[in-house]
Amino acid sequence: MPKKRLLRQMSPTTLLTLLSLVTPTAATYRLLDLYNSTNFFSSFTFFTSPDPTHGFVTYLSATEASARALAGYSQDGIYLGVDYTNVTNSTTGGRASVRVTSQKSYTRGLLLADITHMPTTLEAYSGCGLWPAYWTFGPDWPNSGEIDILEGVNSADTNSVTLHTSKGCTISNSGSLSGTTLVRADCTGSEGCSQQTSLDGTYGRGFNDAGGGVYAVEWTEEFIKVWFFPRDHDLTPSLTGNPPEEAPDPEEFGTPLAAFVTDTSSSANCSIESHFKEHQIVFDTTFCGDWAGEAWGDDEACSGLAEKCEDFVGEVPEAFEEAYWIVMSVSVWEKEE
Ligand SMILES: *[C@@H]1O[C@H](CO)[C@@H](O)[C@H](O)[C@H]1NC(C)=O
Ligand SMILES: *[C@@H]1O[C@H](CO)[C@@H](O)[C@H](O)[C@H]1NC(C)=O
Ligand SMILES: *[C@@H]1O[C@H](CO)[C@@H](O)[C@H](O)[C@H]1NC(C)=O
Ligand SMILES: *[C@@H]1O[C@H](CO)[C@@H](O)[C@H](O)[C@H]1NC(C)=O
């Protein structure tokens, strides 16, 4: 488009915004994509294959999920739920649920998700059987990496943040919030490098009771950092506009909940550039499987409910009435050149 015409179409505020971008105090990120209730379901695809993590789940297509009211809109947000009425077993198949993946993929940048509700069980069931996740991953797993931003299983009440890569990526969590512990430094394979957070309200019932909040991920050539801003945090309003009025500035975010960095003094060495690329964004809710199922027997709150995770999940549908996501928006920002 010719420059003159472009300028003529701009409102004074657009021009002001443009000018402010070239000043030294300019924000370093600009909006690339915003997903909200106006475009979410045309931008995310429903995954309908068997769960690669062997969950006791049946992922529905968009048509099926919509017909059974497991995907749609609620409270101005995007609702992604599970079946909480039908009894099921190994013959009839895993509990119906949804897993959605962004069609677009991204390398580096800033990713914000405003989430008001995440999957939990009814309180009496302590989260047992559930394995919800908000995450990103690249092609040819694990060669392009995976970032698990918000994830946990069973009676967990704080978030676990994890990276998965091919061989040769070891990280340090120096710079993470105190109280966040590095469970494993080697990011290789399905175990990955995990950080267990200890902050209340980052996961499950505590997250929902406080109205959720914003998860922010900054992914650069040097590091991957994850922040959580609870609903009542001072910065939250500036991150939740639809779209936010000003570009967010991670320099103002404070200490991350989980920082994944290279720190040669601790022999942590990871080329983020070669291990992470072209990530799609995913929300899902699965049950049991490689993590929640494996951990069932060691979880005191859960193992008392049934001998096996699948028995509980299949036989007690009403436990999962609150096992839904409400996502207000997801925005992707790229660094100014
Ligand atoms: C429960 O099962 C019935 C019968 O198969 C089916 O029609 C219905 O859609 C199911 N409900 C959900 C929420 O999946
Ligand atoms: C699963 O449930 C179906 C329908 O209720 C029943 O016919 C079948 O025998 C059950 N299978 C098992 C393994 O319990
Ligand atoms: C969704 O985002 C668009 C801008 O891309 C905005 O115009 C619209 O108001 C937003 N919708 C809601 C429900 O916030
Ligand atoms: C870190 O890993 C890269 C690539 O694997 C390697 O070239 C480099 O020498 C390593 N650096 C240190 C300090 O170990």
Please describe what this structure looks like.
Helix content is 18%, strand content 30%. By secondary structure, it is of the alpha+beta class. The protein has a single domain, classed as Jelly Rolls (Sandwich). A hairpin with an 8-residue loop joins β10 and β11. It starts with a helix and ends with a strand. The site of one 2-acetamido-2-deoxy-beta-D-glucopyranose (NAG) has 5 residues, from loops.
Strand-helix topology:
Layout: H1 3-9, H2 12-21, E1 29-35, H3 40-43, E2 44-46, E3 57-59, H4 62-67, E4 71-74, E5 77-80, E6 95-97, E7 99-102, E8 109-117, E9 130-137, E10 146-151, E11 160-164, E12 181-182, E13 193-196, H5 204-209, E14 213-219, E15 223-230, H6 236-239, E16 258-261, H7 272-275, E17 280-287, H8 289-295, H9 300-303, H10 309-315, E18 325-335
Parallel strand pairs: 3-6
Antiparallel strand pairs: 1-18, 2-7, 4-5, 5-18, 7-17, 8-14, 8-18, 9-10, 9-17, 10-11, 11-13, 12-13, 14-15, 15-16
One 2-acetamido-2-deoxy-beta-D-glucopyranose (NAG) is lined by residues 168, 264, 269, 271.
Q: Give the strand tally.
A: 18
In CATH, what is the class?
Mainly Beta
Low-confidence stretches: 1-26
User: Which CATH-level-2 architecture?
Assistant: Sandwich
